[in-house]
Amino acid sequence: MTKKEQEKLVSTGEMLPLMEEFYTIQGEGFYKGIAAYFIRIGGCDVGCHWCDVKESWDAEKHPPSLTSSIVKKALDNSKTVVVTGGEPLMWNMNPITEAIKQGGGNTHIETSGAYEVTGVWDWFCLSPKKNKLPTLEAYKRANELKVIVYNKHDFKFAEEQAAQVGEDCILYLQPEWSVRDKMIPLMVDYVMQNPKWKISLQTHKYLNIP
Question: What residue spans define the domains of the chain?
Answer without folding.
Answer: 3-7+15-206
